[in-house]
Amino acid sequence: MKRRSLTNTLLFAGLVLIGATFIVPFAWQVLISLSSLTDVDLLARTGFPPVLRPGNYAQVFEKVPFARYFFNSCFVAGWVTILQVITSAMAAYAFSRLRWPGRDTVFLLYLGTLMVPGVVLMVPNFAIVLGLGMFNSYWGLIIPAAFTAFGTFLLRQFMLTIPTSLDEAAAIDGAGHWRIFTQVILPMARPGLIVLAVFAFLGNYNSFFWPLILVKDDNLRTLPIGLLAFDSTYGRETPLIMAGSLLAMIPPVIVFLVLQKYLVRGIALGAVKG
Amino acid sequence: MIGSPGRRLLIALAFLLPNLAGFLIFTAGPIAFSLGMAFTDWALTRHNKFSDTPIRWVGAENFSRVLTGDESHLFWDYLGNTLFLMLGIPVGIAGSLAVALMIHADPAPRAIRARARSATLAVIASAIAVIGVWLLTTPGPVPIAGAPGAALSAEQGLGDLTVHRVAELRSNAAVLATAALGAVVALGLAFGSSFFRGLYYLPSLLAGVATYLLWKTLYRPEGGLINAGLRPILSSIQGAVASSPPWLWYALGIALWVLGAIWCVQLLAVGAIRLSNRESGIAAFLGRIGLAATLAACLAGSGFLLAQLPARSLFASGYAPLDRSALLRAVDQLMSTMPDADESELRLAVASLGDAASVRDAIEALTVAAPRTSGSAEAVRRAVITQARPTHDGLTAGEGLSPPQWLVDHRWAKTALILMGIWASVGGGTMLLYLAGLAGIPPELYEAAAIDGAAGWKRFIHITWPQLAPTTFFIVVMATIGGLQGGFEQAMVMTQGKADTIVLAYYIYNLAFTDQFQLGLASAVAWIMFAMIFAMTLINFRFGSRLTNE
Residue A191: inside a domain, yes or no? Predict the structure, then answer.
């Protein structure tokens, strides 16, 4: 028993040390974000800024339209999430609950596109969005991301685990497909819907490639693109860039803290793509 | 289910339509469209509403241009970069497994958990409240040490800071570090494994531009945290390095590699037996060979990396970056060998490069500036390399060991990206998959092993690892697919593609969206990438579906 507790102490110490390697960079980031521009270069030698400047955070909003970037990111990711969950849930219902000619062929087509890398889609989608006149607009940011084969696949797998006896009972009571969908299947599939919503939100909040090529207008920039532009315009102003990056990390952390168990569950289902 | 087939199809379509329409326009359609594009010469600069040039069907020309044409060295270089960056994958997976095993063991004592929980939460909540109130009530700059308002400038260095004030600042840093470590211990005691799981997941949750910008500052050659930590270590081992023969360090690297290889072979053998014993005959034979080849490639790759690290950090780090005078000497040499070159263009190219450029950056810039006569690229290459020979070998007298220049040095930039990738992914989805896998191992197996007296390494190699083989297989395939596509964002944010960090995805971006909008050529590269990913997927379907669905 004694040996066991020694092993456990060592393991715990190991976990704490590994944890420290994740905390140190972020703590360093906080210190930089509170330094003055000139103190940053001394930080490596003193370990602490001689003067703390919380005013840096306010400056981020003055130098660039940071609030606008924030709004854009949350607005785009929010709409993509809502649309993705609704359309995927409806399609998943059709694939998991309805019998119709050609179902398996269409589903196979969906599955087949899952292994095509996103980069293959970027080039033609750019041309399509250009043709539809959605270049440099919210539409172009939201619509192409709103319908995914991945979400449909995830929710279909989830709905297959819901016992059919429930909707059969509802059908006997005279419920139509729409009522079965909204009042039986959706409430039962709630954990799956949340898993998809978390993935969709986090994925689109961090999305980089698509907004980078699609947005030319500063007012439409999402946070990743705004931060990159901030870095290339004010490259020397490390404290402000670090302050901005820290602020950008807040929404994902909140989503994670609130919906942690769904995220863990979703990944454990093998649902991570790429 | 009732109703005629037609009616059922209508109902299904009603449910399917919103998704199907979007899917056809933005997923299925573009895939077909992209395949077509790959065989055309479509470039937005040539084919747009202002010009009538028709888009030509060029057959497989795009593919041959990328793979074997004049510019083919770009593709192969970038493929090489992509594969080099993927060397971090096995290290990351091994790290994830180790971390998952530690978390799964749940070493925090359970007895005190409830009490620790309320105490920790109370302390942390009050700390946050105090700091928040303090920050809100003092909006201006807050002097920490010494006289208020005494601003420091980097030019003055530490000169202005008295010894006393530096000591005060360092003690502040020590207090902060202790507080952070204490918080990790307290939270670990209070919440056990779920706290560590959440903490380790943090970097992959935040992976994106924000964390890449953070690492860009960590990697700064001067004033970055990483080199600040490396400098004292390097200077303390400097004497030992100078007095020991160089082969010793290479031998150390190789010994590490051999040790790692022995472990890996043992692990892989056990895993491969588990994966292949359901196959039969030729399938099993081929499966084993394919598996062995894939694994051997991974092994050789990570071994290469391992052997490189100690030797490179000790001997390559002192190389001076390519400086302006070396570049100007290269221009002089070029002018003497290529009289038709425009000297002012070449000097402009050098000026735009700045100090600390890499050999490859210099060659690229000068090749663009030099006239495109045959053999000019070769002349530029020769000029830059002969003039920019590293001036000293890391251990020149008085120079000492200096830490790497990381992102600005083409020999270190990819390693820097790999290290960051490992940091970001060790606690990510891979760890969660392994935790799920570990939770799924039936406890009877461990009980039986305990009766047989197996413990520790034996228990791991005979039970845990074989049981996790399907999970590992799935992870390896997914990570390889992700690795082939990845690397764009990091390079774009941290190096802007300089220092030899351009990957395939970056190449596609360059072709399609910066260099003349060559959509056709870019599509061709994307489809070459798809072919590689498809091969990985085939392996996955062939062996994986059965195994991961058990």
Answer: yes
pLDDT of residue B148: 40
CA pair distance B365, B380, nearest whole angstrom: 10
Residues A69 and A167 occupy one common structural domain = yes
Helix spans in chain A (H): 2-33, 40-46, 55-63, 66-96, 103-114, 118-131, 138-142, 149-160, 164-172, 177-180, 186-188, 190-205, 209-214, 223-233, 238-248, 250-268
Q: CA-CA distance, B248 to B408, in Å (whole number)?
A: 29
Instruction: Judge whether B414 lies within some domain.
Output: yes
State which H helix or E strand residue B70 sits in.
none
Pair (A23, A137) in one structural domain: no
Q: Which domain holds residue A81?
A: 64-268
User: Which one-letter DSSP state was computed for residue B320?
Assistant: P
* Tokens, residue A239: 């404290």
Average pLDDT of chain B, as a whole number: 76
Chain B neighbours among A 193-252 (CB < 8 Å)?
202, 206, 208-209, 212-213, 223-225, 227-228, 231, 238, 241-242, 244-246, 248-249, 252
B355 pLDDT band (50/70/90 cuts)?
A: low
A106 interface with B at CB cutoff 8 Å: yes
Does residue A59 lie in a domain region? Answer: no
CA of B489 to nearest chain A CA: how many angstroms apart? 7
Residue B315 lies in a domain: no
**Is A33 among the domain residues?**
yes
Provide the residue range defining the domain that includes B82: 62-108+209-221+405-550
Token digits for B547?
């195994």
ipTM above 0.90, yes or no: no
* Residue B140, phi then psi, degrees to nearest 5: -80, -175
DSSP lists the bridge partners of residue A51 as B143
Tell me which DSSP letter residue B357 carries.
B
- Choose from B16, B433, B504, B514 for mutation: most chain A CBs within 10 A: B16
* Whether residue B417 is found in the same domain as residue B378: no
Looking at residue B423, its pLDDT comes to 92
Q: What's the pLDDT at B72?
A: 84
How many domains, in total, are found in chain A? 2
When pLDDT is averaged across residues B342-364 and rounded to a whole number, the result is 68
For residues B241-257, average pLDDT: 69
B73 shares a domain with B215:
yes
Contact status, residue A19 vs residue B196, Cβ threshold 8 Å: yes
Asked, for residue A52, whether it belongs to a domain, the answer is: no
Both B213 and B345 in a single domain?
no
> Is B305 a residue whose pLDDT tops 70?
no
Put simply, the chain B residues between 121 and 180 with a CB less than 8 A from any chain A CB are: 135, 138-146, 149-154, 157-158, 161, 165-166, 169-170, 172-174, 176-177, 180
| The CA-based dihedral angle spanning residues B19, B21, B26, B32, taken in that order and rounded to the nearest 10 degrees | 120
Q: Indicate the angle between helix axes A190-205 and A149-160, nearest 10 degrees.
A: 160
* Spacing of C-alpha B494 from chain mean position: 11
Domain shared by B379 and B440, yes or no: no
Same-domain status, A79 and A126: yes
Greater model confidence, A194 or B347: A194
pLDDT of residue B119: 85
Using a pLDDT cut of 90, give the percent of chain A over it.
17
pTM: 0.80
